[in-house]
Amino acid sequence: MFEELSQHILDIAMNSLSANAKQVQISILESRKHDWLVLRVRDDGRGMDAATLKRVLTNHWSSKPQRRKPVGLGLALLQQTSEMCGGHFHVQSAPGRGTSVTASMRLSHIDRPPLGDLNTTILALCATDKKMDVQLNYRSDGQKFSFDSRELATKG
Amino acid sequence: MKTEKTWKLSSVLAAMKAEPLTNRAEADLTGCYISDLLSDVLAHASHGMLWITIQTHRNVISCATTKDIGAVLFVCGRKPDPGVVAEADAEGIVLLSTKLAAYEAAGKLWESGLR
Fold first, then answer.
1. What is the mean pLDDT of residues A125-152?
2. CA-to-CA distance for B16 and B101, rounded, in angstroms?
């Protein structure tokens, strides 16, 4: 649980970076009409096998070898936030096939953290020394916004 | 060598009206931190502290393990699921529960000299 959802997004997308992803796609759907906020972070990194995925989700970082190394912490925290706010949490991953993390929550839930400073999150992801393309797709009931770091690079 | 001031958990248990939930019920406390936001605890709590919270999610155990927390006190009568207690037992983390609210429990601790 972070104070802002943008910090959760940064945390999850940093996992993508560690997984040597070339591209990370962040999508945010915010619908007042349906009372949902859905976050998805999808990458083309090395992915996780079933055992690793199970460990980070059910046993996560308390297992001894990982002790004091917060590996997978971000997923466990986002899962908690999501479920606390009446939503669902799902991770899809396979070795060599990337990872997709989806977290939903009720937009109106009183404990739902605010989206927060998304600009800084995106900037931080674009400014890492590894070469990872960052795409953002934001959608609400009446608005759409997208960002693609590759477009930025060609204009550079 | 700098010696750190510590307090025996057993000496403040009664004041907080706390009951142990885990097999282990003793720890050397170095201080206290109160927060319900896990990322805040990761950022600001330090080893040996008594952590006061209303959160009973299993992530609390992971958080306490990572930060070497002395003991966790659940307030307002909250108690985690048995699975969470078992996990704490396996990790050697002390869990306690009290009917007092965080403010009252902290006040009792302060009065007991944990400062």
1. 92
2. 10
